[in-house]
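Page header: ASSEMBLY MODEL / two components / 574 residues total.
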Amino acid sequence: MEEWQYKPAEDLGMAGTQRLRSARRESGLVGLISRNLWWWWVRGVLRLTERIEVFGREHLPPSAPFVIVANHSSHLDVLVLATALPLRLRNCVLPLAAGDTFFETPAMAAFAANMMNALPLWRKNCGHHAIDTLRHRLVAEPCGYILFPEGTRSRAGQMGPFRHGVGMLVAGAGVPVIPCHLHGTFHALPPGARWPRPGRIRLRVGAACHFENVPNDRTGWHIIAQTLEQSVCALAGSGV
Amino acid sequence: MSATSQERLWGYNHALDTPFARGFLVGLALLLAIAPLCIWLLQVMGKSGPERRRELWARYRSWLLFAPLIVGPILLGAAWTIAAIALMSLLCYREFARATGMFRQPAISCLVVFGILAVTFAVADHWYGLFVAITPLLIALMAAVALCQDQPKGYIQRVALGVLAFIFFGVCFGHLAYFANDTQFRPMLLWLILCIELNDVFAYVVGKTLGRARLAPNTSPNKTVAGALGALLLTTALAAGLGAIVFAGTAIHTPLKLITLGAILSFTGQLGDLTLSSIKRDLGIKDWAATFPGHGGLLDRFNSLLFAAPAVFHYVNYFQGIGMDQAPRILAGR
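Prediction written out in full:
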């Protein structure tokens, strides 16, 4: 008889916090249900407290793989981005979150992993192996990432320079990168604030960039970072 | 709901009325107290290296956790027993789904979970008709839902894995829970679990001391023919001996029936272990999960119960009847 193909979970053999902190973590039914409940609740709260406008929905990809990049000035950024995605994309999106902030304690790691389906990106010592795992997962699963190339939340509300991380993920891979600009999240929930303030948030989605022909080295990463930074800036200035 | 049903489901004042239940608790407490002494003795006699010792301590610690989690619900009442077995079924299914990759099929996975919950309801309601009906109906539903993706490639694999998972963790474990519909469920369940666990121990000990020829080298390299036969003999004797106390005064209380029951228990227990070992080898994994240090996952611990539960259930039900003196349909009843 023909052999069937089995693909056990990538995180089989890992338990507890080790599994929550792994870039190979895969969520199942429980994760799917808790995630959908979480995003349903977040969407409800955001609808009540903020006025969210989304422009350029037609640029959102039809399916995985994809990478969404945006400027970063608030914890609300990933919430607004994720809830703006249609359900079929939201179910396969994996936000890349700072390991030292979101995966430090077991409780925080459990929340980030189970509710947001986030994967850790260790800013201080992000090894080659971690990036390779993420690159492979993006195409093989396939899934989508939400990434903030500035590497940190802007403290003054102005966009900072884009770092090389996004380039390491997409250089040479046939994955569309969708630049987005968020305006109003810094006012609604600035770094240090505990509760969001009511306000208006604008999300502008730009046309996808492709980097199949960009070399996977420092030069290529720099080109990618610059291209995306310019795209996001252009979206900010496009003002509708 | 009648007073008998209420007492069976929730009452724990009569938990230790039977001599077997009392003896079991005392025996278990003694075993848990003596085990560290045995491990220490092995160390002192130089029979175990540091690696072995660590493994033995890890296993002992896991058992310290398991024992109250298994025995507690059984003593507390039928409702707790049925709920605990349902939880165990769901967690075992989760391990199976993650190992086979089935967890990537949310629709089929949902149906298996629904099936396990439906079986739990049928058991709690003492509604045997529903318990039997769920199997073909759920299989039909699974086949239908798997069509919705409109992806014939891999259709058989998707449906077959779902059906296998439901049969193992819904139906087979459901038979374990159905014991709780009898007023004498406590001694029966404790006896079953004790004999099944000791079956594994006998196979291991006899295999290590007398084993030469391997039973199924590709499927389970550590199992020997001597171990299997030794377990069959010893477990049959133990199960029949203790069964004489558990089934005293019932239709099963004859030497021939008790010995047959013991042999069936041992054989199906080993079969369950080998079956899940074969599945693990097919998948290319070593343990079902890393939940318990020294044991692997829940499925590594409870695999022997898989076929033993329905086999023993139907054997006892045929001669004696299980829950026959109880009113059926206690929740949804007419």
